[in-house]
Design goal:
This protein has a single domain, classed as 4-Layer Sandwich (Purple Acid Phosphatase, chain A, domain 2), CATH 3.60.21.10. It is built from seven helices and 13 strands. A six-stranded mixed beta sheet has the order 5-6-7-8-10-9, covered by helices on one side. Strands 4-3-1-12-13 form a five-stranded mixed beta sheet. A hairpin with a 6-residue loop joins strand 12 and strand 13.
Length: 269
């Protein structure tokens, strides 16, 4: 079973690289299930529209996760409840539209549970992420309720993500961090068999400041009055994510492989 999780899709260049390269990547790597984080997909670099969502499904994504920018496009609140393959963080305040997790069918008919969680530190107000994770572990169990379990922990600080990895070790196929738009080099299989990476980076233009125009970002740091509201860098984008080959019998990871495809990052690693 080959599962791929891609980091935050960043603006127009991120969308373009997904639509152009994801279908070929699915064939090349024989991917059975693809998750991508779409919370920065819309043109301003924040939020996701229904058009973006449908574009990603057409390119081959099976589930789209989000994070702290999930409601930045007003239309998302209107369509998320009817689109089961678009997840918002499970630990958003009670009563939020949509779902935080779901169980989906992969191309090979296996059941894959995906949960979207959001960190508590330096993020928007949400419920205790560890308590919500604990409830999920008690509700959805590996090989009982789903053949594979994938966790997207959308968080700012590394310690929250690492602690979440240990909480799920042996209970999930993979725990992958998103949000910071910078890929970390700590991809590995943990002691009890769960694949882990603190952050898989973004799918966007890396000649930027976390996906935003670098010159304008520098102006903002210098408090230059000519700076504008942040806007996405529009150069050639790089796909960044983590692929896991999982064991059909145990649901745990057998191999992890970082996926870096694109001109401005791939050639420098």
């Amino acid at each position: 079973m080959n599962i791929l999780l891609l980091g935050d899709i960043m603006g127009p260049s991120g969308r373009k690289v997904i639509t152009e390269k994801l279908p070929k990547l699915i064939k090349k790597k024989k991917l059975d299930f693809v998750i991508l984080n779409g919370e920065n997909a819309a043109d301003p670099g924040v939020g996701i529209t229904k058009e973006n969502f449908e574009e990603f499904l057409k390119a081959g994504a099976d589930v789209i996760t989000t994070g702290n920018h999930v409601w930045d496009q007003m239309e998302t609140m209107e369509f998320i409840s009817s689109e089961k393959r678009l997840l918002r963080p499970q630990n958003l305040v009670k009563g939020s539209p949509g779902n935080g997790y779901g169980i989906f069918q992969a191309k090979n008919k296996k059941k894959v549970a995906v949960i979207n969680l959001m960190g508590n530190i330096f993020m928007k107000k949400c419920e205790d992420v560890f308590q919500e994770a604990k409830k999920f572990i008690q509700t959805v169990q590996l090989k009982r309720d789903a053949d594979f379990i994938v966790v997207d922990i959308h968080a700012e600080i590394t310690s929250e993500k690492m602690a979440m990895g240990y909480l799920f070790d042996g209970k999930a196929t993979m725990v992958v961090g998103t949000h910071t738009h910078v890929p970390t080099s700590d991809h590995r299989i943990m002691e009890k068999g769960t694949a882990y990476q603190t952050d898989v980076g973004m799918c966007g233009d890396y000649n930027s400041v976390i996906g935003m125009n670098r010159d304008n970002s520098l102006k903002k740091f210098f408090k230059d009055p000519t700076s504008k509201r942040h806007y996405p860098a529009l150069g050639e984008a790089t796909i960044s994510g983590l692929m896991v080959r999982a064991d059909n019998k145990t649901g745990l990871a057998k191999k992890v492989e970082p996926i870096i495809i694109g001109n401005n990052l791939e050639n420098r690693l």
